[in-house]
């Protein structure tokens, strides 16, 4: 996950509080005497001469004016977090450094710079360090990090088979965020083919909406989590980070409030994208929905062979949830 740091050039309680409320997890303090005051505002890490991360040791700052500065930034030990700032904020130095370093943070002054830094070479920097004295800019940059974590190309899956099964254990993922219509989680029997299971945003005559919830399916299935990784649904627990995607493939990070495992009647849903199979075992109930290409939800009890829904296809093969290249067959 991308990190949001705030550079407090001067101690300003309002600005620092806004940064923390906007998702900043680390505050860079130029005045180390204010460390304890900042700590009282929220549970954050402090970068300063006497902070949780020591400036000049754990974290170094490099102003890049030319090639020599770029080379110096690249040569620090791998564990050192390097903050870079460019005089004209050109992309080329960051491209070179991103290719060489994992612990790279870019100083930005607004949301447009933040978007660029997070997406350079598709990988982006590990985090951004915001220098701004404007409350609204801080809030906008916070939203950039929340909304712009990942973007996938979702595929249209044609349903080929629907088979009611017996009882099984399914996982209901309750998050600490409100999800919108058209959003859900990617889950599947295989990491190589997943359905976009819609959040419970819809009301019906029997059950109120639960827009913080995705009834994600059977315990054995994969779910996408940050960092292009997967987990088994049964592994999820409170405070875990998971990915939520909208019907256009835009992903954001949300956190699990609780994961409920309950025994329920299940249904197998299979589909195809060209010659690739997508399958999932979901709860057999009206409130469990897949997502149509236009973002509208469709209940699994109404689903028919030939219907089109959204999914995600990649080459299967994961080791402890991380993508690997290997020959693997999953049936």
UniProtKB/TrEMBL annotation:
Domain 3-dehydroquinate synthase N-terminal, by residue range, is 1-144
Q: Which InterPro entries match?
A: DHQS, DHQS/DOIS_N, DHQS_C
Q: What EC designation does it have?
A: 1.4.1.-
Q: Which GO terms describe its biological process?
A: amino acid biosynthetic process; aromatic amino acid family biosynthetic process
Give the 3-dehydroquinate synthase C-terminal domain ranges: 157-331
Q: Does the keyword Endoplasmic reticulum apply?
A: no
Alphabetical keyword list: Amino-acid biosynthesis, Aromatic amino acid biosynthesis, NAD, Oxidoreductase
**EC class of the enzyme, as a word:** oxidoreductase
Q: Name one GO molecular function term.
A: 3-dehydroquinate synthase activity
The entry sums up its family as follows:
Belongs to the archaeal-type DHQ synthase family.
Supply the HAMAP family for this chain.
Arch_DHQ_synthase
Q: Which NCBIfam families match?
A: PRK02290.1-5
What is this protein's record name?
3-dehydroquinate synthase homolog
């Amino acid at each position: 996950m991308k990190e949001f740091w705030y550079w407090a050039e001067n101690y300003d309680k309002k600005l620092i509080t806004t940064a923390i409320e906007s998702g900043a997890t680390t505050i860079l303090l130029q005045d180390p005497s204010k460390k304890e005051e900042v700590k009282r505002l929220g549970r954050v890490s402090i970068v300063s001469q006497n902070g949780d991360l020591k400036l000049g040791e754990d974290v170094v700052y490099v102003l890049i004016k030319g090639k020599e500065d770029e080379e110096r930034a690249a040569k620090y030990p791998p564990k050192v977090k390097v903050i870079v700032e460019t005089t004209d904020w050109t992309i080329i130095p960051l491209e070179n450094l991103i290719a060489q370093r994992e612990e790279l943070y870019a100083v930005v002054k607004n949301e447009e710079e933040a978007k660029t830094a997070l997406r350079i070479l598709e990988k982006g920097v590990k985090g951004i360090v915001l220098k701004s004295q404007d409350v609204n800019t801080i809030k906008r940059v916070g939203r950039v990090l929340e909304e712009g974590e990942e973007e996938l190309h979702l595929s249209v899956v044609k349903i080929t088979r629907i088979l009611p099964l017996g009882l099984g254990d399914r996982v209901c993922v309750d998050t600490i965020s409100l999800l919108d219509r058209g959003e859900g989680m990617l889950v599947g029997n295989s990491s190589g083919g997943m359905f976009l299971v819609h959040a419970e945003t819809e009301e019906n005559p029997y059950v109120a909406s639960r827009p913080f919830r995705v009834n994600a399916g059977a315990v054995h299935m994969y779910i996408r989590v940050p960092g292009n990784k997967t987990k088994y649904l049964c592994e999820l627990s409170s405070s875990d980070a998971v990915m939520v995607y909208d019907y256009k493939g835009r992903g954001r990070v949300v956190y699990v409030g609780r994961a409920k495992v309950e025994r329920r009647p299940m249904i197998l849903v299979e589909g195809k994208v060209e010659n690739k199979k997508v399958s999932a075992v979901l709860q057999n109930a009206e409130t469990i929905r897949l997502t149509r290409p236009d973002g509208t939800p469709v209940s699994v009890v109404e689903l028919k062979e030939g219907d089109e829904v959204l999914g995600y296809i990649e080459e299967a093969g994961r080791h402890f949830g991380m993508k690997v290249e290997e020959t693997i067959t999953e049936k």
